[in-house]
Structures are given as C-alpha cells and as structure tokens.
C-alpha cells in the first residue's frame, strides 16, 4: 500500500488508529467557569492587559490597542511628499479595490458587472489570501426551516451583540444571493442527490446553513473568482488588476474624502498614482503579525494593512483591543503532557 503521509508521521498515525476505539468511548465534562477564566487569562492575548497601550495620535487617540497594532497605527508614512506628484495620474477609474481575497475579488467583479471601470490592486498574487485556506463553508439561510432573521440572531449572539446591526442585516439578507452568484460563476457546492444544497451545522447556529465544497470551500470560491477576473481582463472588459503593488497611502481630495491611493511596486519601489471615485478596502485581517506572540495559521499577507491605511486617512477603528481567533490550531495546555 502507498502511504499518503510521509514516514515521519506514521508513528503518530498508528497511535491515533490504535487509540481510536477507546477515545470514542470517552466523555468530557464541562470545565468550571473559574477554570475557563484562568485559561483565557493565562493564554488569550485579549486578557493580557499589560500588553495594551493608549494610542497617542489619530482618530482613536486615548483608546487601548495591543503594542503591535499601536506601532503600526502610530508609524510614519512611507511617502515623501516631495517625491510624489499627484497630478501625474497612472490610473483613473470609477472604483479602486485594494486587496484580492474573496471579498476584494467579489467586490471588483460586482462593480464591473454594474458598469464601473475597476482597478484591483493586490499586495501579493491575485487570490493570494486567507480565503484559500478557509475550509468549513459559507453560511446562508436558504432552507425552508431557516430564515435571515434566525441567521441574524445567531450572528449577533456570536458577536456578544457588539456587531454593527446594519452590517449583520446586510450579510444575512445578501447571503443566499451570494451563494447563487458564486454557483453561477462555477463554484461546485456540495449537493444532495435531489440537487439541493448539502448544508452543515456551524458553530453557534440554530439551523444547518453552512454551504461547503468538501473541506476546501474557500479555495474553490477563490478559484472561480480569480479565473473570472482574469477572463474579464483578457476579454477587454473594464476590469484591470495589478499584482505585487500594495496601496501604501490613500489620497484625500480637498474635502477630505478618499479619492484614490498610492501604490508601490514591491520589486522596483516605483510609485503608482490611482484616482478613483470610490475605494474599497478589502485587505483582510491581522493574524499574521501574531498579537502578543500568539501563533496563528493566517496567510502571510494578513498584516493589518487596510486598518493602517484607513486610520491614516482619518477613519476611526472599532474593537481594536480584541482579536477573534478560530481555535483550530489551539490546544488545551494539559494535553501537551502526553507528548
């Protein structure tokens, strides 16, 4: 038989197989609340208040943020104003989308579908983002026993009711259409024999509404979004894209409104001036800067770029003293005792 795993993993695999029957019979009691608090206080970055500090400048001046975030928000610009001529415009478009994961790619496609000229700028390669590592699925309330209202309540509860209600409402109402739109582009959703969507349970949900593509949902979504962007670009549509050119500063007009951005070629350091009627920031999260040394499996492009861009343009940020972590790579510390 051909072993699908490298030899150095065989010992662990055999151990898992040998102990599976006994582990299936195990039950685990819920840990007491005091013990829960002890664990998060010791290990979770949000609870280590000694690593938070007050911001000294900007819209969130006086707010607490982790040292790593504060360093970025309080940092100097990479732009020397004397070396940049904003009148020398390289791209003049209706919409500039910064970032090309699932959100940025979808925003660019939908803007182009609605008649806008679009430039999509990404720091790395097209589609090189956290989206490709998303496994479980995409939530949408489209079953007879489900509704956007139930989805809304689940999402608000999951966020401890700190979510922006208007954004959550838009999410749950648009989700079913988004599933259909992605399928129209070529996403191969898992289906039941009768052709209906095969939907799974998700954390904190009262109904099955997770649409999946095996265990590589994000990769499948990004595949079709990326291919569609390339096809439209190749066939002369009003959608252009540039790779390895991150936005390093937003451009404001005389009214203080965002009117474009300055991009920088990562290889040549050449600056590109983009003028746009609207700018969409879709640069992803910040897990890769490892807040307070907490390890994550985030894509190496998730370094809070969009937050810094927006902050420098005068946009206040919310919830910067807390980070959301999916516990896939975290382990109960006591478990390490057997390894």
TrEMBL record:
Molecular function as annotated in GO: oxidoreductase activity
Protein species of origin: marine sediment metagenome
Gene3D superfamilies: FAD/NAD(P)-binding domain
Name of this chain's protein: FAD-dependent oxidoreductase 2 FAD-binding domain-containing protein
Ranges where the FAD-dependent oxidoreductase 2 FAD-binding domain occurs: 94-329
Keywords attached to this entry: Flavoprotein, Oxidoreductase
